[in-house]
Amino acid sequence: MTHTPILAARDVRKRYGAVVALDGVSLDVERGEVVCLIGPSGSGKSTLLRCLNALETVDSGTVAFEGRDIRAKADDARLVRRRMGMVFQNFELFPHLSVLRNLTIGPTTVLRLDMAEAEQRARALLLRVGLIDKAMVHPSALSGGQQQRVAIARALAMEPALMLFDEPTSALDPETIGEVLAVMKGLADDGMTMVVVTHEMDFARRVADRVVVFDHGRIIEVGPPAQIFEAPHAARTRDFLSHLGWHGESIDIGIKEKT
Amino acid sequence: MSLHWDVVFDNWRIFLDGALLTILLTVTTMALAIPGGLLLAFLRLSPIRAVSLAAAAFVEFFRATPLLLQIYWVYYVLPAAFGIQLDQLTTAIVGLTCNVSAFNSETFRAGILSIREGQWNAGLALGMSRAQVMGRIVLPQAVMRVLPALASTWVSLFKDTSLVAIISVPELSYVSLKLRAETYRILEVLTAVAVIYWLLGYPQAKLVDWIHRRWKVVE
Q: Are the Cβ atoms of A109 and B122 closer than 8 angstroms?
């Protein structure tokens, strides 16, 4: 039996007019793996993430999830998205619904769970992200960090096989970044497959199994965090990291060393 | 000048019947023009160009021509050109519904387009269909956002029902003008009808303001 990665992108290309966003990107993600995508703004990381769950169409190349080509039909994209959670930079909670309803709307409308079961699942997840006392409030009453934890719980309510994170801490105040990263670290420890676009180099170094470096729509280097952060092969990886002021130090943001 | 307000009190039943028909016309028209406006808004947002153009043509025709003319048109042209004979009340409801649906469709369309792309993406990312995202996420927020505009249309409609007096629908204006002609008590009758319109119209406007405050979506 041949081995199939849970997610496989092959030679994905995407243009927006004259701008080349993705210039032949190939990436495999294995079950249980945490892959962090790093690189300068506009280098194609977020575009790739959106192509992985078909929120964005690809011009050429293929994306397969659990062996299924996600481009085939709209129905296929929906089946894939049910199994693939996504967390957005701006949270994108549904402001007209309570926190609890934000978590139950997916399971009740898409998975056809009855409301009692969906609520039970939602409450367990809110407990897990430390926000059970906020179940009945609306998202506008929460801080940015709390909203992002709800957004993570909302995605988890679908019991996904894989989670995509699109710069989940970029819109947060520095003091609330840690609480979100801690939830993400917990997920990684539980064996969740994760693809994370991030500028949090410390998180990538401590939590990722593999780090993928993007530049101008291409992958310029892939490797374990030790390679990328301590002995990068590509000169542009070194440039990028030094522009960020990365010199291999770690900041204590509530994340324990990866074991 | 002597005033004879008894003309108003003696004919209270006429005013009441007229006012009830005015309310019936307003409620029926809005009950039809909300789904009508939504349908037109969806058609106008359709990616099929012929569909969106047809909806746009309908909307722009009814927005850019006088309501009075539209009511006349339905009353006189439909029977003459298409052999469709409607009674006065049905004519009034058809004319008003087409007009208000056109305005509502623009209101709904603006509301739908005001919901940011990220909300669509969040719904789609959960595995929802576009119809589910529209129905469960986008439309509820859009409707709350445009409630003040819908309220304005509602209050305008309430007053515009007076235009169907021209085709002898016995609503509040028609019965009042008839009573004025019969009694020659111009000041009393017209003042009374103005007071009745205001007493009915003002609470409606305030009620909708309250609904907006009560269910406003805070982001």
A: no
